[in-house]
Amino acid sequence: MPTLVSGIRRTDANSSLVKPEVYEAIFNFKPYQTPIQQYFMANRTAKFGTGNPIFQLQEDVLVPHAFNSTAALTGGATSENGWDVGAANIALMQVGTVIHNTTNQETYYVDTLPGGTSVDITKVGSGNITASLTTDDLLIIGSAFAEGSAKATAVSTVSTFPYNHVQIHKKSVYMSGTQMATVNYGGSDWTNQRMKATEEFKLDLERAWVMGTRHVIAAGGGVGRRLFSGGMLDTTSIGVSNRSQFTGSAFASETYFFNTFCKNLYAKGSNMKTMYCGADAIIGINDFAKVKQQTKVKEKEYGVDVTQILTPFGGAGLVWHPLLEGYYANWILAMDRDNFMKYVYLTGNGVNRDMQYEDNIQTTGEDSRQAQYLAEVGLHLGGGSQGVHRVLYPGA
What we know:
- This protein is an alpha+beta fold.
- It folds into two domains: 1-62 and 159-396, phage-related protein like fold (Alpha-Beta Complex); 66-143.
- It is built from eight helices and 23 strands.
- It has helices at residues 23-27, 35-42, 177-180, 189-211, 254-265, 279-286, 289-292, 337-340; strands spanning 47-50, 54-56, 66-67, 79-84, 97-101, 106-115, 118-123, 138-143, 163-165, 167-176, 215-217, 226-228, 243-246, 272-277, 297-301, 304-310, 315-320, 332-335, 341-348, 351-352, 356-358, 368-381, 390-394.
- It has a seven-stranded mixed β-sheet with strand order 13-23-18-14-17-16-15, sandwiched between helices.
- The protein is elongated and about 95 Å long.
């Protein structure tokens, strides 16, 4: 005898019919349109939950090793006293610090700290110190302490805590009972509307990852606080502030792309980057002589076409991003993706606000059906202070 359910049909009475998540259906729907969202959905390690709608990132950098002095070196002797290295650099100095001058390839060590922002130095090796300029690039290449000397002074940097928000995304499908019972060309109108909502929801998330702006609108007017999540182009929050601008508006020259953009891009972070490219940008790269000479490796990654190329500094996965169009058609978002880019969803007190599909959310007793996709999510983009990502964009 069948089990009878009176009143509202609840989840516990239909547990065998309830699909626990919507990832599979959304993931397989037109993956090429949303390459960033595909990456997040396919990699459980590229996402994490937060218990606070405003989440922080801890960013830190190593102690600097390159600097320019405030005063020039007079030279002409094996030692020189009172060399002003500047207020920003004196904290890096202690007795025994070894300094290399990249302009003349001479090396000095600090033998006294007389006070203020000055150091007394002695040349390492034979000969006298050569006169130098304040524009000479200097490197700290370690330290050389005397036997039996005192311990080194600890020098460290202070962490910064850039932050971002999770943002509530919704996409709804609503249909009257009459419309649902009406025969339409193309089959079920409900199925058709849900398919369109699936596509639109993925595109909404994808645009937010790229173009979102971090912002808060305080509660008022009978509604709660409204949070906006910053995206990759939001340089006022966690977005990519390291940028290279080429001359003109078509696309960068081959020399500029490899010798300037790639050189700066690979200077920090890993030697494998993912380049999300507008249509004009990916056409321009494929026309480069160095790229044409390569045996390019094409593969599909989570349903998205990726072309692997080699630069003099590391590998790059080229991904055409359909949403980088119009004004952004010749832009590149070059990301150290696998190490620093993650997707954050709100979860706390046993409530998970990751991407989900909610059905039958219409008002009780209403002659209709309503469902929606919902996600309370935000972008975690680390490595910004380390310069591991870089944007390439056109000039005027």
